[in-house]
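Work Package 4 report. The design task specified in the project plan requires that, given a folded chain encoded as C-alpha cells, an amino acid be chosen for each position. We show below one input record used in the internal validation round.
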C-alpha cells in the first residue's frame, strides 16, 4: 500500500440542516481526531454558496446565491446575514439593512474594505461601501440583453448578460466574468471587453475567442483564466497571454508535463504562483511551469460529493478553503502544501 502523507485539515463545516458550525481535525484523509460545535445559528442557513472572500480581520463573507443574500462568518464562528433579505430576490440600493439582491454570485474586496458583488439577476455590479451603503456601479437592468453579448462604455450605461464572477487587481480595476466573457471595469469608470466570447466558438490560435469560466488574479497581478475549451490561460503583467495547461478543444484527464483537462470551471492561485483548478470531480494543481498533479474531491474531503461542484479560495494568509456548492459546506485546510497531489491519467 502506498504511503499516505500526513495531512492536517481544520475544517469549518456549515451544516444547513442544523445550521451549526463544527470544527473537525482530520489526518490521513478521514480519521476524525477533534470535533467541537462552536456556533449554532438556526436562522442563518446556507444555500448554494458561489463565492467567499475574507477581510483584513479574517472574517468570511459568503455569497448565498440560493437565498439572494450575503452571509458573514466572523473569526469567532458566529454566522449572520450581512446584506440582503433571505429569499427576497429583487433590486434595491441604499442602506445595507434594506438593500436587496438577485442571484448574488462573485465577491471581491478592495484595500479600503469596500465589497463588490456580481449581482447576476440584476445584471449589475454592486458596491457595499465601508460605511454600509449599497449602490450600483456598473450595468443597467432596464435594457434587456440577449446571449449575443453586452455593451461596453461608461459603467452605468454598460450592459451585462449575467455577471457571475468579480475580481480586483492592485490598481483597483475590476474583472468580471459575464457569461463566458471577461469584462473590465477600469478605474476611469469605463467598461471594456478583454477576453472571451458569448458564443460557443474557439480559435486555437486566439486566446480570446473562447468561453471563459473563471478568473483569478495573483499577488503580482498575473491573470489566470479557466476556459470551457479544456485549458487554463495565463496573462502576464504586460498583458501577454500564454497557454498554461491543457490544449484548446482537446478533452482529457491527463496530468503531468503534457496535461489534458476536461472541463475546468473554477480557478484560484496561491501566493507561490501555483494555480488550482476544479476540473469535474478532481482538484488539479498547476505549477508555474504548467506541470499538473491532482486529487479527487471525494478523497480530499472524505465524502461523496453532491452535484454543484467544489471550488478553491485562498484567504489573505494563503490558507486554502474548499467550497462545496451542492453540499452547502465550506472547509478550511491549514496546510495545503501537505495535500497528496499526484500524477493521474485516466
Amino acid at each position: 500500500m502506498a504511503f499516505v502523507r500526513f495531512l492536517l485539515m481544520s475544517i469549518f463545516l456549515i451544516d444547513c440542516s442544523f445550521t451549526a458550525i463544527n470544527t473537525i481535525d482530520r489526518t490521513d484523509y478521514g480519521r476524525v481526531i477533534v470535533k467541537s460545535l462552536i456556533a449554532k445559528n438556526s436562522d442563518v442557513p446556507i444555500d448554494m454558496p458561489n463565492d467567499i472572500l475574507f477581510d483584513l480581520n479574517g472574517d468570511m463573507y459568503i455569497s448565498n446565491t440560493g437565498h439572494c443574500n450575503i452571509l458573514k462568518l466572523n473569526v469567532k464562528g458566529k454566522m449572520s446575514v450581512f446584506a440582503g433579505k433571505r429569499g427576497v430576490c429583487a433590486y434595491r440600493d441604499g442602506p445595507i439593512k434594506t438593500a436587496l439582491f438577485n442571484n448574488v454570485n462573485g465577491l471581491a474586496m478592495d484595500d479600503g474594505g469596500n465589497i463588490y458583488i456580481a449581482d447576476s439577476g440584476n445584471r449589475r455590479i454592486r458596491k457595499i461601501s465601508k460605511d454600509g451603503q449599497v449602490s450600483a456601479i456598473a450595468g443597467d437592468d432596464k435594457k434587456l440583453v440577449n446571449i449575443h453579448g453586452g455593451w461596453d462604455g461608461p459603467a452605468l450605461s454598460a450592459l451585462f448578460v449575467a455577471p457571475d464572477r468579480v475580481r480586483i487587481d492592485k490598481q483597483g480595476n475590476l474583472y468580471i466574468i459575464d457569461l463566458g466573457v471577461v469584462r473590465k471595469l477600469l478605474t476611469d469608470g469605463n467598461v471594456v471587453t478583454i477576453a472571451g466570447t458569448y458564443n460557443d466558438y474557439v480559435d486555437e490560435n486566439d486566446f480570446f475567442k473562447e468561453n471563459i469560466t473563471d478568473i483569478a488574479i495573483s499577488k503580482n497581478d498575473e491573470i489566470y483564466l479557466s476556459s470551457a475549451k479544456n485549458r487554463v490561460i495565463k496573462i502576464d503583467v504586460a498583458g501577454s497571454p500564454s497557454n498554461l495547461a491543457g490544449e484548446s478543444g482537446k478533452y482529457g484527464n491527463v496530468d503531468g508535463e503534457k496535461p489534458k483537462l476536461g472541463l475546468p470551471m473554477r480557478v484560484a492561485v496561491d501566493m507561490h504562483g501555483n494555480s488550482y483548478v476544479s476540473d469535474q470531480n478532481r482538484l488539479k494543481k498547476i505549477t508555474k511551469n504548467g506541470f499538473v498533479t491532482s486529487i479527487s474531491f471525494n478523497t480530499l474531503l472524505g465524502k461523496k460529493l453532491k452535484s454543484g461542484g467544489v471550488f478553491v479560495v485562498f484567504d489573505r494568509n494563503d490558507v486554502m478553503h474548499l467550497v462545496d456548492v451542492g453540499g452547502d459546506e465550506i472547509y478550511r485546510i491549514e496546510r495545503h502544501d501537505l495535500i497528496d497531489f499526484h500524477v493521474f491519467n485516466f
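The chain has two domains: 1-38+210-345, 44-201. Validation will be extended to a larger panel in the next phase.
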